[in-house]
Amino acid sequence: MSIDGLSDDENTLHYDRPAGGWGSVGSITRIMGNERPTPAVLDTLRRQNKPGGFMCVSCAWGKPAEPHTFEFCENGAKATIWELTSRRCTPEFFAQHTVSALKGWNDHDLEQQGRLTHPMRYDRATDRYVPCSWEEAFTAIGAELRAIDPEQAVFYASGRASLETSYLYALFARLYGHNNLPDSSNMCHETTSVALQKVIGSPVGTSVLNDFESCDAIFFFGQNTGSNSPRLLHPLQQAVKRGAKIVTFNPVREKGLEFFRNPQSPLEMLTGKDTRISTLYFQVKAGGDIAAITGLIKHVLAAEDARWSSQKRHVIDPDFIAQHTVGFEEMKARVEAVSWDEIERESGLTREDLKQAADVYIEADRSIAMYGMGLTQHVRGSETLAALVNLWLLKGNIGREGTGISPVRGHSNVQGQRTVGIAEKPELVPLDRLAEQFGFEPPRKEGLNTVKACEKILSGEVKAFIGLGGNFVRAIPERDRMEAAWPRMRLTVQIATKLNRSHLINGEVAFLLPCLGRSEEDLQESGAQAVTMEDSLSCIHGSLGNNTPASPHLKSEVAIVAGMAKATLPANPKVKWDEWVADYRRIRALIEETYPDQFHRFNERVFTPGGFYRGNSARDRVWKTPSGKAHFTPPGHLRAIGFEDAPGRYRLITMRSNDQFNTTIYGYSDRLRGIEGTRDVLLMNPADIAAAGLWEGQVVGLAGDAGDGVDRRVNGLTVTPFQLPRGCVGSYYPEMNPLIPLWYHDEASETPAAKGVPVRIVTDPPARP
Ligand SMILES: Nc1nc2c(c(=O)[nH]1)N[C@H]1C(S)=C(S)[C@@H](COP(=O)(O)OP(=O)(O)OC[C@H]3O[C@@H](n4cnc5c(=O)[nH]c(N)nc54)[C@H](O)[C@@H]3O)O[C@H]1N2
Ligand SMILES: Nc1nc2c(c(=O)[nH]1)N[C@H]1C(S)=C(S)[C@@H](COP(=O)(O)OP(=O)(O)OC[C@H]3O[C@@H](n4cnc5c(=O)[nH]c(N)nc54)[C@H](O)[C@@H]3O)O[C@H]1N2
Ligand SMILES: [Mo]
Questions:
Q1: How far from 233 is each of 205, 242, 256, 259, 262, CA to CA, in Å?
Q2: How far apart are CA 121 and CA 99, in angstroms?
Q3: Which residue has the higher pLDDT, 126 or 231?
Q4: Is the CB of 496 inside a 6 Å radius of any atom of ligand 2?
Q5: What pLDDT does residue 38 have?
Q6: Ligand 1 pocket, residues with Cβ under 6 angstroms
Q7: For the segment 397-420, what is each residue's pLDDT rounded down to a tens digit?
Q8: 527 pairs with which residues across the strands?
Q9: What pLDDT, on a 0 to 100 scale, did the predictor assign at position 4?
Q10: Hey, what domains does the chain have and what are their CATH numbers?
Q11: What mean pLDDT is reported for the chain?
Q12: The whole model's pTM is what?
């Protein structure tokens, strides 16, 4: 179904206004009221994402060399205001509330207490966090870590910490003796890192910002730009105005991908003129993308045959295929053997729908493929990406201006953390060079990713967990079992800016260590320190915070990592924690030494406008695969979900609202989807509601339906009609995470499959505990 083919049924399409526009201004004003940010916020917003300024802590989208007056979006502003709140979560707060009592609070209310101000230690006798000194915390952490086998420790990182912090954190893990470095990427774009590496020999996207100025078409699969990377709407709007076509595949009709009103254009704001973003919009079934892409490939191959026989012209690029790829004939034979019946059934789209989309691809000389969690968070996520690369290779749409594969990354430095060594896979890290640089023998054994770390926490083999940011317990699958197993660990340490649920599910010995936010001034011995991050387009940016820290007791993440490491490790003349903390330029020099090809002249290039490009072999058509070529992959499965259809079984899509950043819930207004005042909803196609004998407003529960005998339940959801394909239901992440089995993940990368979870609706929910 394309946009034009859909009726805007009053009951099911709640919000008919564009992304951006006055709504986004109102949404920023509301959060300003809630957080009562410090007055410096306006100055900070003016410096956001600009050369020499500070880099947004929200999404990872690229930052242009010539920024707009305000180079931030609604959600970037919210993230900054959230960090610069005037609220404080102090020792007095912890004295008033036991940890057990705080467990009853929801995510929004916990973070609403504001910035953490003091290092805190968990006191078992009173079941409270009590203030402690940094020295006490580091000494205790060091003693605990020295008392266990290093392989019993897990060092998690949420993708926000800088390259400097991340490099030291990974070095700490290896000097101590493990590669157990799971990252939020393991729940996010790990599928990308594994699948793209396999087929094009590079783990990251190949497009850069300039490509958006010359592409003819952009295909969007499962990425919600309007909420999750709104600054990307600017290049999209520009592309549309130039005449580029945008084709979207998404089970949900996301407003931000339909229309956009630029809040930075007074004319658009005053005249109410919107830009239509998507030329064509297809509501593919959750998990139906392999089938849809297979259909597109079938159409392209058919067009090639027809045009070649009638006009002796090519649709595909046979020279590119011959010179740069392997596996074309096998892929072609397999795709041709798939029937249109199967494709239509699995994708939920018609042959004619797919013809329209294929025609755009065929006519476009240069196309960019963009995608997000809608592709990566499936059991066959990696297979889906391989299918997408098949389509892109057909026309040589990789490694040419105006083209490329462009995964839209999540956390603002998640890609960079992998670049500088936060990786559980030792083969991704230049261990020999580290050995030489720091005079030690790095561990070579494969470390634990997120899923494996969870398994070993469940089995009791992991004894210590350090969280460098994030809200691990809330973000992972299988939450109920994980929360029950968590306190069996001996040591848990959380480095954070605000209180969240993971801090309340603590080990026997537990510390909560408050750190500076990125917008705050980081003063060390040599003066104010800059830090760096890598965006989704592989560009590295410097960031300089200049706000007064939320509390004088905060330490930088660099200093906290160094403090723990120093207290844990034996002295080593090549490892100079104090000198590194005193001047972060020394850490950048170390990064340069480890990764000279990508980070040469690092310190000089920190503030390059638009960031400096770290390079990507696949963009240069150098394929770092075993064959030295890019790989066509014959399609194996047509469905990306990992279960069969059955009566009463639905595919649950876990969604982000426009009013959250992952587990940080700013508020209860999912403005772009018209869902207000609550997150406890079950979004359903009206025909499914009727067929199941339910009614709008009925309160129901969801039960896991994975068939493994484990009872998984979430109750208290209000049935809400919504434009979803039949058989798919939607509700919010992280509330739905108890329904996802730990074993239900992408087969190749083990990314949890949060977009196609098997569930049943239960109408007799027991009362909520
Ligand atoms: N404001 C804000 N910004 C954020 C975040 C946030 O929470 N809030 N999170 C950050 C992070 S860490 C990340 S990873 C990114 C996430 O950004 P996205 O990648 O956009 O992730 P989601 O919002 O989870 O889902 C993406 C889209 O996939 C669609 N979808 C679901 N299933 C399928 C399917 O089977 N096929 C297709 N084609 N589409 C499907 C959903 O309808 C949704 O529109 O955003 C980052 N930016
Ligand atoms: N069902 C389902 N589950 C999912 C997903 C999904 O789509 N569906 N998405 C997955 C994805 S893509 C991701 S990335 C993960 C996210 O998982 P995480 O990255 O672990 O979670 P966040 O919610 O981003 O972490 C929020 C916390 O980070 C801390 N924080 C904020 N800023 C800073 C800082 O500057 N420094 C430090 N040290 N701490 C800080 C705050 O205390 C805040 O409470 O969740 C995954 N889980
Ligand atoms: Mo993410």
A1: 18, 14, 8, 10, 8
A2: 12
A3: 126
A4: yes
A5: 79
A6: 58-59, 75, 188, 221-224, 227-229, 249-252, 254, 284, 286-287, 289, 372-374, 408, 410-411, 653, 655-656, 660-662, 755
A7: 999 999 999 999 999 999 999 999
A8: 524
A9: 33
A10: 88-188+413-608 (3.40.50.740), 195-410 (3.40.228.10), 650-762 (2.40.40.20)
A11: 93
A12: 0.95
